[in-house]
Predict the structure.
Amino acid sequence: MSQDRSKLRWNGWGWVARKDELAQRDDVWTWLAGELGMPALLATPARPLEEISLPPSTLALPHRQELGAIVGASQLRETIAERAFHARGRSYRDLLHLRAGDLAEAPDAVIYPRGTEEVLAILALAAERRIAIIPFGGGTSLTDGVAAIRDEYESVVTLDLTEMDRIIAIDLTSHTAEIEAGIYGPALEGALKAKGLTVGHASRSFEFSTLGGWIAAGGGDPIGPQQDWLSSMKLATPTGLIDTAQGRTGADLTSLIIGSEGQFGIITEATIALKPLPQTCHLHAYLFADFPTGLAALRAIRQEGCGPTMLRLCDSEETRVLGAFQLLGKKRGMMDRLGEHFRGAQGLTGKPCRMIAGFEGDASVIAFQRRRFEAVASRYHAMRQGRADSDAPRRFQGPYIRDSLLERAVGVENFEVSAHWSKLQTVYETTHAALDAVLRETAPREGAHGIVLCRVRHATPSSATLAFTAIFPRAVGADLEQAGKIEAAAFQAMLSGGGTPHHSPATAAPLLHNNGEGAVTVWRALKQHLDPKGVLAPGGAIS
Amino acid sequence: MSQDRSKLRWNGWGWVARKDELAQRDDVWTWLAGELGMPALLATPARPLEEISLPPSTLALPHRQELGAIVGASQLRETIAERAFHARGRSYRDLLHLRAGDLAEAPDAVIYPRGTEEVLAILALAAERRIAIIPFGGGTSLTDGVAAIRDEYESVVTLDLTEMDRIIAIDLTSHTAEIEAGIYGPALEGALKAKGLTVGHASRSFEFSTLGGWIAAGGGDPIGPQQDWLSSMKLATPTGLIDTAQGRTGADLTSLIIGSEGQFGIITEATIALKPLPQTCHLHAYLFADFPTGLAALRAIRQEGCGPTMLRLCDSEETRVLGAFQLLGKKRGMMDRLGEHFRGAQGLTGKPCRMIAGFEGDASVIAFQRRRFEAVASRYHAMRQGRADSDAPRRFQGPYIRDSLLERAVGVENFEVSAHWSKLQTVYETTHAALDAVLRETAPREGAHGIVLCRVRHATPSSATLAFTAIFPRAVGADLEQAGKIEAAAFQAMLSGGGTPHHSPATAAPLLHNNGEGAVTVWRALKQHLDPKGVLAPGGAIS
């Protein structure tokens, strides 16, 4: 069930065969240039793989033989395609490197184990031979953890888990499943759907990421969604196996492994809690007069325990830009004009922002929840916009669009930050202002600037997450420097406002210090205990 | 707001002044003797404190002065009353020791810090002087963690947190509060109630336990309730302070500290998530034909996402015994006979079991949730029994009754075990059978036996917790031996059925091995890092 890697882009997102619909849309590029204060957006194509030469592999023959003896020779692969595909993750910074043809970080080889025992054997051997091991699932990592520091290592081998994708058992009585960690999102949900069950988790990277990756890269939300569906897991470390299944009576390691980015070990199997597939799932859209009003409504809805299973609020700029984008090239019909008139009549002429609420269950549940939800929303003068389509296709499209933008000298950086409600507005304003300023400052020409979009996700009674998207004219030739400045400014602003930034290349190192010396020394002690030779993902956040 | 310790029982539960209503109820003792297969239940009074001599304090004068210099001389207390109150926790085994006048485990002194900085200073000094430090909140611990191993230590000092009970801040926007860990349950809920908020947590020990204790003794349920309301905490360790507030972006220490029983450090402050006080809370009672049917209904209700905020199912024996107890001394009226007739008519003549469902919110929410709940319950032929009173008073009464029973040669042991639904019935049967056998085997006379009650709590879509109460005729003179056999049998049975036993003196040590070598070595490494001199609660689970 594992994806055919030859059909995936080595230097971008998703399927090679997927057509870039935006490339030919001159109206889009003209409009976007205007939005960014640029006269035009030039083509900035990536270097093709054929033009690039990889550094020679440093994996010594005896080590190759020893690794091959563990997994079988055909499971140790060293082709250019394999090494290029595994060279980096999929952060903006990663894409800049890959598109520029910089494969300095490519591993010497890729090893595909087919079971926990093999992973344990590989790690033990790697520790003895000083071979760095980079855990790799779908490879959509955003934290630079995939790129190894080579300095002190004999060689670097990527351990790819995607051939460990068996569904070991589905417990229909307990609604749980025991699954190998290398399974891709669609394969997992496909197998569960056949039993009437679902994880109910679909991030933007869902199609091209794995179960183990969801756990290893998780965390960040005050109550992480992983905690909701993760029952237990097996962690293979250079010093042995940890199975959290029996250790839930206190002093449990789960929260420590979630988000540990492969620094303590490799998640090889997980037992997850499932939900019945909902009978129906309806999305409804609402408009609020402005972002502070939308935020207040969102908070009230969660604190009063109203039932939408999904709630998302776009800020005014995201509402405007997405609206404008959708209208591009379409004739403005009577309905649009009517809608505008109607909004005007309700005083929403200013900077309206859009909320999407998802209701799940049978018809009576949906009706009841929606009535309660709308009773609260109407206190904040919400305007109904009717049923919305599932946003999964658009969400999955996001990373593809980033590639299209990169082709036309436009950059995209994403930042996520959680905060308690009392700090959320401040974190929003501080981060927005910092991004506006740094995008202007690092723009390639006077007067050019970025677009900063934000949506609010994972609203709980006490906190929510702000997901920022910064779209900006690339400083071609100084791309990495520009990205560094943007990341530093965003990170500083998220923290100073009192937020907790999520994983990103900007946060990996400085977050260590943000956690306070106490937590950092605990991590180091644990790393020293589980990976005393430091062969796991060297260069990652905790090494 | 801290409790006046002179008004609390040093060798039993709760307030000294509380009258033992059961003591004079001859009808109860006659009935209970019959239930236990005993001819009569003799008085077995506890030894009064005046008769008992404590071992002399080994706290050296210079150490006393150094500790006093940190907290002020009046905060270091060495009276007999203080030392006796802090000698042990409140497990059955603890009560046997205390009632027998065995105060060998009493600390040399009790220190009452008034802030995190003082706790850090005490721990640093203790590590230097090799003084064992026993963290102590309300003292209702069930795990023997309060009783220190003295062997290698200069002296043993209990660190009592109950004078650290300030509400530092309540964030009304985020529904969170920052609170010192030594606050008692009623003081905490009282302060929150004034703001229209609640933690919504009330265990049986609620009145006499503290916030820090709820966290330190937590864990056990597959998704522990602590995870629902605990936002972050400060942990003072001999090597410094850990604040989890900023460390939620992955590799978070929270789950490791929950249930760690003071082995890694002392929880001094916590930020907790709150709920609005519900407008109304209704309890409704239902009867099912037998326990397997009740279990099936409970599982369906949780898996279909019906809304009761509280759900509890008594097994047939608990239903019968509680019912019989309530009817003692009451004239059986027409309503009772009618009820019996009605149950008979519906085929519930066998071994019916009772479910209590709690519904919270406004009237419309309660009505909707109850309708959905009853639609599922009726598929399992539930019989409505009407509104039930809040069971909080009865729940809080439980530990007092244990004291009354101990006075009449009757012992009580509690065991909790979680399991996935597919294993729950087996865990129930295995544990029940093991308890029945061991109670018979350890009974003081031929033909005597115990009563084993069980209720199901914390039902989630994937798992639930079985809470067993074993009531048995004490083997007076060999009480500890009897308790040891009962605990060993229960523990073995809970594990062999595939369950995860919760904290208890029986589980503390063997659970270490149940967690697998991997987790155990991680705990040891962490303990070594945070408490290198091993002064925190020596004798506890991880030392």
